[in-house]
Amino acid sequence: MPLTKFWQVNSRHYFSCIAFFICITLSVSLFPTAIFAYTEQNSNLAQQSRWQKIEQTGENQDVYFYAWGADSQVNAYIQWAATQVKTKYNINLVHVKLSDTSEAVSRVLAEKSANNNNQGSVDLMWINGANFATMNEHTLLLKQWANKLPNFQYTDPVNNPAVTFDFGIPTQGMEAPWGLASLTFYYDNLAINGSANNQLPTTLDELLVWSTQNPGRFSYPKPPDYLGMSFLKYALVMLHQQSDETIKAQLNQMATKQNTQQILMPLWNFLNKLHPTLWRHGQHFMQNGAQMRRLVDDTELSLAFTFSAPEVPAAVKRFDLPKSIRSYAMSDGSLSNTHFVAIPYNASHQQSAQLVANFLLSPQAQAQKQKPSVWGDKTVLIQSTLSSDQQALFQTDTPHPSALPLNSIKRTLSEPHPSWVEAIMTGWQTRYGVSQ
Amino acid sequence: MTSNIKTDVFTRMVKLSPRFLLALLLLPIFAGLISVLLPAFGWAPELEQTSIGLHGFYALWQTPGLSQMVTLSVSTGLISTLLAFIITLMILAAFFNSPWLNRIQRLLSPILVIPHAAAAIAVGFLIAPSGMISRLLSPWLTGWELAPNGLFPHDPYGISIILGLTLKELPFLLLMALGVLAQPELGKKLRQQHKVALNLGYCPMTAFFKVILPSLYPLLRLPILAVLAYASASVEMPLILGPNTPPTLAVAIMHWFSDVDLNLRIKASAGALLQLTLTGGLLALWLGGEKAVKVLFSGLMTNGQRRYGSAFWQTITLVLTTLVIAFILLSLIGLVMWSVAGFWRFPAVMPDQFVLSHFQNALMQMSEPLFNTLAIGIITTVFATIITLLCLESEQLTAKPMSRFTSLVIYIPLLVPSIAFLFGLVWMQQLVHNQTSFFNVVFTHLLFVLPYVFLSLSSSYRRLDPRFAHVAASLGASPAKVFLQIKLPQLFSPILIAIALGLAISFGQYLPTLLAGGGRISTITTEAVTLANGASRRTSAVYAIMQMVLPLIGFILAWLLPKYFFKSAHR
Questions:
Q1: Interface pTM (ipTM) of the complex?
Q2: What InterPro entries does the entry give (chain B) (predicted)?
Q3: Cβ–Cβ of B259/A131 closer than 8 Å?
Q4: What topology is assigned to A184-336+413-432 in CATH?
Q5: Is B226 domain-assigned?
């Protein structure tokens, strides 16, 4: 039976082959694992002792936290965090309330130019986007600390670029993520009542149509306000949905003299049509999102938007918005980004600032922050990295009628390259900054 | 022996104090101005710019809307001052020597202590499309179910700013004028002259303009110029009530100074110089206008005409006064209602429910700003009062009135726009010491508190009957003893009023606190301005009310304490 014999011979070879391969695979796969395990253990140990050192030196000090302070809920949350770090580390967390984060940026810049390289007044700051880009460009931030915070692991950094990239720029451990934001719209359902010419707009095009039919009931905060810029970026990204891939790709690259004109033209055309229909005929714009919210409460505006959805039900509970408010996400996409905390390179209390940043990233602090009654800012932690006890912290009760219904965000739009902020801002200022 | 040495120390201290005062006021302002002047011409080593040139000014000229900014600053400053001045005169003329003048004074004087930011917030609540006026008329008259498309606040013409400034400066000018008329000798003389004019058949208003005004005006000139300088360069009112496409020059400068792009500071410095020129020009224009009026109307003074449509003007004044008072009252009522309002949808005149949660929430977060406000206010005011008293004492010890130069210098912080020198000053402070923002704020507040304390104390101090001091001295009392045991007790009440005024001025400072403190020192006022343009209307109402209550407490104490002490003295 030549066939059987052949099989026997072959199968013998075959088995030895398999055995060989198994050996090879095993050794190949085990060897590096062993090495990795070894180094990982080592670096873990190193990190642990590094962290212990930070804990020891960082205790019993003041931390000046420069953060935008025009929202009482955010302020109250920071105060809560201050009491927590006080009991935990005996750190005095002082919230320096800014009306614009750029104030802190210019302060650090001024200190650098005055050669103040280790006595800086800013210890920790709330930052993202253009301000981060500026500070990064001038190397004003402490590097490689955020990625070493013990609680950073809960953000699943390997699979979650949202915590290591800020508007497309790698953070290189300069920023610890703090919260996640998506552009969410809200409206007064007594004012937008669904009648023939008053249907709730769910896309950018519908928004223009609705605003034309209901003039004066919508507007956006004046650039360079962060929220106003976000609306313009949302419009810009949406207007390029149908464009060529090569043009679309420009949005993720540096804005240059050559491409600015071409990329921004659709935006200006859109705004030229939109502005005459806006609140105050687009001749005057509100300063910020909080003022826009107040105008909705005043019933001057019927439709507005925010970057932190839970702020809406919280405002209704505080009587700052009427009961008839409802939240929703635009069906054509929601602009999303992460906000961070960073430590200036010359901060006086760097270790203490890291302790605070780590606390802000803890499941306890993140869960507290996500509670609608507290602040309602979406957590940056990934649930799968948490223990079940930690996950339980994030359970919430039934949502408020004005809250954004679960899973309403169907499509997220990522932020364009931060250089576009400057380009949009300059273009906006020359076109609309001075009313005629 | 010991008493001799003590006397010497005291006398020396007293004699040095005017020079100290001069240095205290002049050095920071000049240092500040120089630190603005140099960058304006391109010399800013910290920005690696050392080429002297005009590029800061080129950048300024190329700013879109610069002419609108300038026009807005000039027109709001000039018109509001003019309006406040005219209405003050009309009220004085119509109610001179009538009990109504005191009543109006009592109604308006609390407004004086309201900080500009709080006043702006209150006015904003009133004139907004969803404000009290609109609510009172809707929907029965207007048919509005939603707030209408309005113009105010933030109108491009600056009407809201003018309204806010006028309402705020009117009580100041009125009280200044009444203060002049309250001086025993001058007041008595003027009242008698007024009576003579009435007997000669002049109608009361005409008599006021022909007889009182010429003697009164020279004493009102400095307060008016201070109002004009402030109005043309203030930041709080235009920030809360003004337009932003573009804002007033002062607000724009503030934004440039705090911009991320440090190179904007050169443009901002150039802008500060422009602001300085504008304010200087306005002051010159006012003084020129004064001369013109004098020349044009001097004939009218002596033409013997007894009345000019007096019933008509009397009615107009009455209507205007009522309007002003009604406006202020409505603003305040609106402010109080917002601070306790639950849901309050337009066009309801009253909130659906009243809640105290806004006060509770705000008070919980208020402890630190409140402490800062009080600490800075008290330290600054006590220091200012001591220096003022020493300077006034030196005047009496040397028996020489203060030189014209010195008395002018005291007003300089009121006449030089703060935005023009504060940034330079802060820059200097950063060079000298970095970490003591609290001290910086106190020091900067002192510049603004000192003039008011001095103004408030000087007339009563100079009016002190010198015979008490002479008798005490002839009985062998040392100058220090005379000062402490004879003069100060007699001045108890004016000193308390001056302290209350100083506290009120310190409490109300926005720009100096913000800049000198580097944003680190939060006070009730900085919080109120930050909140006014954002956040909840209810929370900002709470802060505005706190801003009003604090100085009021000071004045009530200044009013009550002497009564209490005098009562015990009588017993």
A1: 0.79
A2: MetI-like (IPR000515), MetI-like_sf (IPR035906)
A3: no
A4: D-Maltodextrin-Binding Protein; domain 2 (3.40.190)
A5: yes
Residue from A74, A111, A297, A321 whose CB has the most chain B CBs within 10 Å, to mutate: A297
Domain A59-179+338-397 in this protein, CATH class: alpha beta
B361 has a chain A CB within 8 A of its CB: yes
**Window 193-252 of A, Cβ < 8 Å to B:** 215-217, 222
- Intrachain domains A59-179+338-397 and A184-336+413-432 with the same fold: yes
B478: left (phi over 0), alpha (psi -120 to 50) or beta: beta
Whole-Å CA distances, B529 to A224, B118, B235, B544, B550: 19, 8, 10, 9, 16
* Chain A contacts in chain B segment 157-216 (CB below 8 A): none
Per CB-CB distance under 8 Å, the chain A contacts of B341 are 319
On whether residue B242 sits in a domain, the answer given is yes
What is the domain range of residue B440?
Answer: 16-41+75-335+359-570
pTM: 0.79
A425 vs B: CB within 8 A? no
Domain ranges of chain A: 59-179+338-397, 184-336+413-432
Domain count, chain B: 1
Q: Does A403 contact chain B (CB < 8 Å)?
A: no
- Read off the pLDDT of residues A219-278 as tens digits, 9 standing for 90 and up: 999 988 889 999 999 999 999 988 888 888 888 888 898 889 999 999 999 999 999 999
Closest CA to B248 of B72, B79, B65: B72
| DSSP letters for A85-141 | HHHHH--EEEEEEESSTHHHHHHHHHHHHTT--S-BS-SEEEE-HHHHHHHHHTT-B
CATH of the domain at B229: 1.10.3720.10
